[in-house]
Fold this sequence. Notes:
This protein is an alpha+beta fold. 55% of the residues lie in helices and 14% in strands. The longest helix is centred in the C-terminal third of the chain and has 23 residues, at 115-137. The chain is globular and about 55 Å long.
Amino acid sequence: MRTVNTDLDSIVGAVMSSTKDRRWFLDLKTGHTFIIDYEFQDEEEVEKILVLMEEEMDRYLPIPHLGHEDYLREVQVFANSLSNFPSLQELLEQAVKEKASRKDINRILNRAKDQGEKFNDYLTGRVREQVQLWLEKGKIKLQP
Length: 144
């Protein structure tokens, strides 16, 4: 078991904010999380970071990415719990079928009082569970 000096919330936040062009990494030596943003950072800067990471491959761990399909699956599970909000449930199910963007899904959720916040709490909890499993599988123990 490897002990890393960081907290669970940092990693959960990284997973929640990652995209295919915005990837987070955990420095196992320092416990810091850092981002490589292929859209924002220039190619030369990204290349420098990747070369440094290659030199110490055992030090840097890619943090899992919450892909759009995974996100939509969570939206569907959340929608299934909305029997008290049938119109919202229907809108979310349609959004999942159409593979709507996160932005569009947030607009739908925010139409009903407190549902955007409830979904965010639900999603954060699910991501937290997945991160804990990922850490266990990688034999990593966090020490905040």
